[in-house]
Design brief:
Elements (H helix, E strand, L loop, with lengths): L1 E8 L4 H12 L4 E13 L4 H11 L5 E5 L9 E7 L6 H14 L8 E11 L3 H11 L5 E7 H6 L28 H10 L16 H14 L5 H11 L1 H4 L1 H4 L8 H18 L5 E3 L6 E5 L2 E9 L1 H6 L1 H17 L6 E11 L9 E3 L3 E3 L3 H17 L4 E9 L8 E11 L1 E2 L2 E2 L10 E6 L9 H4 L18 H15 L7 E4 L4 H13 L2 E4 L12 H6 L5 E6 L4 H10 L4 E7 L4 E6 L2 E7 H6 L26 H9 L8 H4 L10 E3 L2 E2 L4 E2 L3 E3 L8 E7 L9 H19 L6 E8 L6 H21 L3 E7 L3 E5 L5 E5 L3 E10 L16 E5 L10 H10 L14 H16 L5 E4 L4 H13 L3 E4 L10 H6 L6 E5 L4 H7 L5 E7 L4 E5 L5 E6 H10 L5
Parallel strand pairs: 10-13, 19-22, 29-30, 36-39
Antiparallel strand pairs: 1-2, 1-3, 2-5, 4-5, 4-6, 7-8, 8-9, 9-14, 10-14, 11-12, 15-16, 17-20, 17-21, 18-20, 19-21, 22-23, 24-27, 25-26, 27-28, 28-33, 29-33, 31-32, 34-37, 34-38, 35-37, 36-38, 39-40
Length: about 1000
């Protein structure tokens, strides 16, 4: 018999007050609300047991708990929101663990189902109540019940109905007839998936006709059709998400592909040039890249979780950040995750125009506001509960992200080079080792995640691709493996169950040994009834695959049991050259390992030049440049996103040096600094560069600017210019379009040119190619929305002494203000052009001249600036990028809460208009303040680079800028600037 526990507040509930306020802002006539937390428990327990459980969940100071007796406050409508059957319920799982501790009993599987009941009062109709529920729940993962007062009383509440998964069909592996299929049917299988008996399809395999033909030829040689397990496994392994075929296949006259020809070659050349100064240790061959850090290695990896976040923002982003955490755990024999980083590209959160995946206004997509809020909350939940700091990130807005957001999540790890003579960055699964799955169990969530992410979002995008993260379960697993099992030498190799689940993790590790055998009946499941192919490809979260020597299994298993981590032997690594999977005593997969990994055919791609000229903006200089500065500070892409930074824990583990919000004014910084080892002042610097709007003009300059910005931001905070590594994340659209491929090729060329010129190697990366939405607009008309070609470049730098790190805020009145670099009239794609265009024409101006990166000039300046920081000549430093010099001046002043008195007279460069001087985004510039006593040494250190003396830091909060003729053009106060900077997202 199922029971229900309801817990209500006995004092005013701030959650309810916030809910009422938000609903009133949305136009609902809500006068009051109460919130009750509910738990349905599917277990045979007596009244005493239930009372003990209820008491353990209730804080008697401000809560009351009831068992099988619903609260009945005065209300008009009650709304219950819980998870759908099969969706991971972290709260429910935590309550189950508490029950086991309290009752000294073990309960197998999910027996606790959490939900929340909202009691709403006001002038509401049933339709209003349903709309409220729809706005608070995600139908992909949550269930909704709505009752009015009379219905609630008559039915005695919502009852204790259990949302258990019920699967009646008997699991079995099916043979798929591709030997007799024509090309049309092969295309349907590849695009829509394997057919079910009722004619529906299982979901995309993301295999085109070339791939499907190759698979058919392979099985024709075997004299048989494939099983669904085999076909699904090949699809996961060959997916664009896993194999990055667009970067790997021949393109035009480049036989080796874009990655090897541009990205990998750049790193190889840089490492050879550095010789004994090479600081790279592991690049492009493990779950993360790694650089030297004394007796340790620092690892870094940045992933994307775009497609899942479009369907379920909270689940998509949360699984993204806990998933990338496993990329640190899966590096070598296990690195300790020490820092997270993030980046979000959203549509306009005030845009309420609906989008639909299906015809006739069906399958409505979430609004940009819902996506933004859910993504931010998901990274909060996944990061803060993981015990890992999240200091570094950004947020960027553009209407082209309305159909599909970009969600970047990264993890930095720490691992000793050696323990007892064993190199911890080397691993190899050995024949005869057990295949062990550790962590969470397998369910239907996360099926087709890899193949789904290799396609545009459309009406066939599967709900099963959505997952829910469980960071607490993962934290226990991480601690047990990295902090204990690794140094006890209890396993020989490890990787995460990310894209493709077991099908990919086991097969990848089997390349080390030469083959594998898996018994699917031994895989722990969340609930019975999964089909064999579902068990094999599911991406359910919080799982790692390990190779454990047989003589170490008892010790490993015992350790995991003591730490509350489930670990199960599911097979054995072999040297057979075969990939064998068994279910119910029969082989459901029997593939040559060489075909699985290397059988996919090469597809030659051709490009066309991308040529798009924009009308060059023609407008007079704005009259009120003070008002212009305030307007620029309030733009979404410049304004403070402190509402995100403050909710992400950046202090856990105690390694934070330079924070995400800096100075007395708490201004968002472009770089953060951390000290990984308590006994050493050696530190790391994290930053990034991203300039999507430049792609409208030229992806070469877009990519070069991303690298330059990432490097400059890190150098400005104190990173040694000669020890900066890069990570690339290409997020592209329509890669089957030759012009889009041309843009990609141009960006990859820029990566090679700029990285080699700076000597900054790439150590890791990830691409996401199909960032398009294909559906219908608010009028039911077909629409395609593609993201702008976007490259995020993340930088990881070394600083020998974190005490010399430099923050952005002006610190001492009287300090001299300098600009390193030149101001040119490179306004194309600038935030200033966008603002003026929106004000005058209703849409952003683009222009035709994006900033170019003068690598020779910039490198000289950055190397000199590194020496200036090493000599402690710099009081503050602010990289000049989005928004230009005007924004950099404002951030320096706001950070220190000190005024500035500066002039544009004598600034080096080609800019002739004062507004262009202020808002050009020319590369290579750093704004600094310097103690007057150090001014001579600073100028001597920077000799050979362009340096302009602008003015001084004031004793008061007046912010004054004089123009090119010496007359005042901006006059305001720091407090007024700060109000403009922080008003945009106030209340978020």
């Amino acid at each position: 018999m199922a029971h229900r526990i309801d817990i209500a507040r006995t004092i005013p509930d701030n959650r309810a007050k916030t809910l009422v306020s938000n609903l009133q802002n949305q136009g609902f006539k809500v006068s009051g609300a109460e919130i009750v937390d509910s738990y349905t428990i599917d277990a045979d327990l007596d009244g005493g047991d239930m009372r003990r459980i209820a008491d353990s969940l209730t804080n008697p100071v401000f809560q009351e708990g009831r068992v099988d007796d619903s609260f009945k406050p005065r209300f008009d409508y009650a709304v219950e929101i819980g998870f759908l059957p099969g969706v991971t319920d972290n709260i429910g799982n935590t309550v189950r663990e508490g029950m086991e501790d309290s009752l000294k009993r073990n309960f197998d599987g999910q027996i606790v189902y959490s939900s929340r009941v909202l009691f709403l009062s006001g002038d509401l109709t049933r339709e209003d109540a349903q709309r409220v529920a729809n706005g608070l729940a995600n139908p992909l993962i949550q269930r909704i019940n709505v009752l009015d007062y009379r219905e609630f009383v008559n039915s005695r509440g919502f009852g204790s109905k259990v949302p258990r998964v019920r699967i009646s069909e008997k699991p079995s592996a099916d043979l798929i007839d591709i030997l007799n299929a024509d090309d049309h049917e092969l295309q349907r299988i590849g695009k829509q998936g394997i057919a079910n008996p009722d004619g529906t399809r299982r979901g995309p395999l993301a295999l085109d006709l070339t791939y499907m033909g190759t698979i058919r030829d392979y099985f024709a040689r075997q004299g048989r059709n494939p099983s669904d397990v085999e076909l699904e496994s090949i699809a996961q392994t060959w997916s664009e998400h896993c194999r990055h075929t667009i970067f790997a296949d021949p393109i035009d006259d480049i036989e080796s592909g874009l990655f090897k020809h541009f990205i990998r070659r750049a790193t190889d050349e840089i490492r050879r040039a550095k010789g004994n100064e090479d600081f790279c240790v592991s690049v492009f061959r493990d779950n993360s890249g790694a650089i030297a850090f004394g007796d340790y290695l620092i690892t870094d990896k940045v992933e994307t979780h775009n497609s899942p976040s479009a369907l379920d923002p909270f689940g998509g982003s949360a699984t993204g950040i806990v998933g990338v955490k496993r990329d640190a755990m899966g590096f070598g024999l296990g690195a300790k995750p020490i820092l997270f980083r993030y980046g979000f590209c959203f549509g306009n959160p005030d845009d309420e125009r609906p989008l639909f995946k299906g015809e006739n206004k069906t399958q409505k997509m979430l609004s940009p506001r819902r996506i933004m809020n859910g993504v931010i909350e998901g990274v909060n939940a996944g990061g803060n509960q993981s015990g890992v700091a999240t200091p570094q990130g950004f947020v960027y807005f553009d209407d082209k992200y309305r159909g599909k957001p970009l969600v970047f999540v990264g993890v930095v790890g720490l691992i000793p080079r050696e323990v007892n003579g064993r190199k911890l960055y080397e691993k190899r699964a050995m024949p005869g080792d057990y295949i062990v799955m550790a962590g969470g169990r397998v369910g239907k969530d996360g099926i087709h995640g890899a193949t789904f992410s290799s396609e545009a979002i459309d009406s066939g995008s599967p709900a099963t691709a959505v997952q829910i993260a469980d960071p607490i379960t993962q934290k226990k697993m991480n601690d047990a493996i990295v902090k204990e099992a690794r140094d006890l030498k209890l396993f020989t190799s490890i990787t995460d169950n990310g894209a493709g689940g077991l099908s990919c993790s086991v097969a990848e590790m089997a390349k080390e040994s030469g083959g594998f055998f898996v018994d699917l009946n031994k895989v722990p499941l969340k609930y019975p009834g999964l089909q064999p192919w579902e068990t094999w490809v599911s991406e359910s979260q919080e799982r790692m695959t390990l190779s454990v020597p047989k003589d170490k299994w008892d010790e490993f298993s015992g350790l995991m049991q003591r730490r509350g981590v489930e670990a199960t032997v599911i097979g054995e690594f072999t040297d057979s050259g075969k990939c064998l999977v068994n279910y119910d005593g029969k082989n459901v997969m029997d593939l040559d390992i060489n075909f699985l990994h290397d059988g996919l055919p090469k597809r030659r791609m051709t490009t066309k030049p991308f040529v798009k000229r924009h009308a060059e903006p023609n407008f007079s200089e704005l009259e009120d440049l003070t008002l212009t500065l305030h307007s620029m500070l309030g733009r979404r892409n410049i304004a403070s996103f402190g509402f995100i930074s403050r909710q992400y824990d950046h202090e856990v583990q105690g390694n934070s040096v330079l924070k995400p919000l800096q100075g007395r004014g708490l201004v968002n910084a472009d770089a953060t600094v951390a000290k990984p080892l308590p006994h050493s002042n050696k530190g790391i610097v994290l930053s990034h560069g991203i300039n999507p709007r430049y792609s409208e003009i030229d992806t070469y300059n877009m990519a070069a600017a991303a690298i330059d910005t990432a490097v400059r931001n890190a150098v400005s905070a104190g990173a040694d210019f000669n020890r900066i590594a890069l990570l690339d994340n290409f997020c592209w659209c329509s890669p089957d379009d030759p012009e889009r491929l041309g843009q990609l090729k141009s960006a990859a060329l820029a990566c090679y040119d700029t990285a080699v010129a700076y000597g900054t190697p790439f150590i890791s990366g990830k691409d996401s190619m199909f960032n398009d939405f294909k559906g219908f607009d608010e009028n039911g008309k077909p629409i395609k929305i593609s993201v702008p070609p976007t490259l995020l470049v993340s930088s990881l730098g070394i600083i020998d002494d974190v005490r010399k790190a430099v923050s952005l805020d002006a610190k001492i009145p009287g300090d001299v203000v300098y600009l390193i670099g030149e101001n040119d009239e490179e306004m194309g794609g600038s935030e200033y052009f966008a603002m003026v265009g929106e004000q005058q024409k209703g849409e952003a101006f683009i222009g035709n001249l994006a900033p170019r990166v003068e690598t020779g000039r910039n490198r000289r300046a950055y190397e000199s600036f590194s020496r200036a920081i090493e000599r402690e000549l710099i009081s503050s430093a602010q990289s000049v990028h989005r928004g230009g010099l005007g924004i950099a001046l404002a951030k320096t002043a706001m950070g220190g809460m000190l005024g500035l008195d500066v002039s544009l007279q004598g600034i080096k460069g080609l800019a002739t208009r004062e507004d262009y001087q202020l808002y050009s985004e020319t590369s290579g510039r750093i704004l600094v303040t310097v103690n007057p006593a150090n001014a001579g040494d600073f100028e001597e250190t920077m000799k050979g680079s362009s340096v302009s003396r602008l003015g001084t830091v004031r004793t008061d909060d007046k912010f004054i800028v004089k123009g090119m003729d010496g007359k005042r053009i901006i006059g305001t106060s720091v407090n007024t600037l700060l109000h403009s900077y922080k008003s945009t997202f106030r209340g978020y």
